Amino acid sequence: MKCQQCEKPATFHITELTGEKPHELHLCEQCAQSYLTQNPSGGMPIQPSLAGMLHHQLKVADTAKELAKLDEQVCPICGISFYEFRNQGRLGCPHDYTCFGSELDPLIVNIHGDTQHSGKHPKHHRQSSQDQTRLIQLHNDMKAAIEKEDYERASQIRDEIRKIEEGES
Amino acid sequence: MRGSGPESDIVISSRIRLARNLAEFPFIRRCSPQDRKSIEKMVHDRLQAIPGFNTLYYLRVDELAHVDRQFLTERQLISREHAEAEGARSVAIDNDERLSVMINEEDHLRIQVMKSGLDLHSAWQQINEVDDQLESKLSYAFHERLGYLTACPTNVGTGMRVSVMLHLPALVITNQIEKVFRSLQKINLAVRGLYGEGSQAMGDFYQISNQITLGKSEEELIGQVSGVVPMIIEYERKARDFLITQNREDLHDKISRAYGILCTAQTISSEETMHLLSSVRMGVNLGLIDDLAISDINKLFVETQPAHLQKLRGNELDTAGRNIERALYLRRYLQDRGKEHRDERN
């Protein structure tokens, strides 16, 4: 489904309850953000808006200079910047939850009212978050080594990946 | 949508979805085309190695024609986003179309189980088993404190979305639906309309789902949705009773006219069909129409959608062509069904 205001995919589905009948809106992240910020008297949407929440949280927490600095933060594993996350509403890799943790945790509390998982755990899961992050990094390094035709390095990396993976079984 | 299962006069379907990501790859948005291919192949190979999973239909969504992708969307086996995305992606579907596993949607894996009627507990039992089996072959991205890690922080934790699709025509007619929306909003449940061609909310179908995915167990989240649904069912039944006792003739007339149009129209839009079928569905439930079953109406909702009509016809149709084909399909189906009923009675 496309955004009603531009050509991007609609990722926000807002139900307005201010009129006589509920009114549905389908917007992309950016249009949803501008709709929500430009429409203070139009009633609150029932869906929490990720971009809207972040916008609010950052406005309260940071000066423009600090925000610009925060936006420049880049995840060393997947390369996504905080600015990109803010714009797209999607994270780049599992490590982002650690790397952008201090900004993400308040957002997660806003959305879920909690920061502690209490549901099921994978039964076979034996890798720590650090090992999982290391695996993504090693896969990236191996791709780069193969592209450079550095097969000796690629084989060293493969051994390292195996060591971590064997640790899990 | 089989029209069976508990409370199926009002509850169309129960659905649970789990979002999962593989530990060793970045999330989809940061995947290279090569990463997407590797994930797709890896998941496919490992699915094949799970007993019972090698009988799943496995479709490469990126290799399908537009109409086939739309067909899968109309049957709720893939999301619109999955149908419209780019790059290597696929879906595995079981024989009775209750289980589907999307690969490379917004998350690496989106597992979904759908049941007819209000049946969240058996949906959870099935999806939990499927998840355990997949996890024995795949390493999921999991955080000690935050649970299952997802591309969007709105899904982190259990990665679980529990939804129930309800048919609430009497609450719409009696203008009480907004009140229901507001009370659901207060307890952190989301309400969405059902969308047809274009993107307008249509008919009187509403999907209720959990918004929170972190901090509560899967059973608690299911309990929250399945606890509130019987109350909405009761409101809807009361509203239907009110309508039929206070205004039986008007209601019967509205429903009979809707049925009449569906039986005789020569061209009909998807939106009008949804509205009319909604009335007829309520008529069948209230005993005002006796030659159709709920399963017939549910079937018509699915099969009068654009891609279904084009598959049935065997060629592409523009909007006008689809409207004619839809009317023809409805006329034939309802005539045949009516005749069968008359024969059964004689």
TrEMBL record, chain A:
Key words of the record: ATP-binding, DNA damage, Helicase, Hydrolase, Nucleotide-binding, SOS response
Key word Nucleotide-binding present: yes
Keyword Hydrolase listed: yes
Sample GO molecular function, one term: cobalt ion binding
One Pfam family hit: UVR
Biological processes per GO annotation: SOS response; stress response to cadmium ion; stress response to copper ion
Chain coiled-coil ranges: none
Domain UVR: residue ranges: 132-167
Transmembrane residue ranges: none
PANTHER family xrefs: PROTEIN-ARGININE KINASE ACTIVATOR PROTEIN
Name listed for the protein in its UniProt record: DNA helicase UvrBC
UniProtKB/TrEMBL annotation, chain B:
Residues annotated as domain Phosphagen kinase C-terminal: 10-239
CDD domains: bacterial_phosphagen_kinase
Enzyme class: transferase
UniProt-listed InterPro entries: Arg_Kinase, ATP-guanido_PTrfase, ATP-guanido_PTrfase_AS, ATP-guanido_PTrfase_cat, Gln_synth/guanido_kin_cat_dom
GO biological process: phosphocreatine biosynthetic process
Molecular function GO terms recorded: ATP binding; creatine kinase activity; protein arginine kinase activity
Residues involved in ATP binding: 13-17, 110, 161-165, 192-197
Keyword Transferase: yes
GO cellular component terms, semicolon-separated: extracellular space
Taxonomy, superkingdom: Bacteria
PROSITE patterns: PHOSPHAGEN_KINASE (PS00112), PHOSPHAGEN_KINASE_C (PS51510)
Catalysed reaction, written as an equation: L-arginyl-[protein] + ATP = N(omega)-phospho-L-arginyl-[protein] + ADP + H(+)
Statement: the UniProt record of this protein carries the keyword Thylakoid: no
Keyword tags: ATP-binding, Kinase, Nucleotide-binding, Transferase
PANTHER family: ARGININE KINASE 1-RELATED, ARGININE OR CREATINE KINASE
UniProt record similarity statement: Belongs to the ATP:guanido phosphotransferase family.
Protein role: Catalyzes the specific phosphorylation of arginine residues in proteins.
Protein name per the record: Protein-arginine kinase
UniProt source species: Blastopirellula marina
UniProt lineage: Bacteria, Pseudomonadati, Planctomycetota, Planctomycetia, Pirellulales
Protein's gene: mcsB
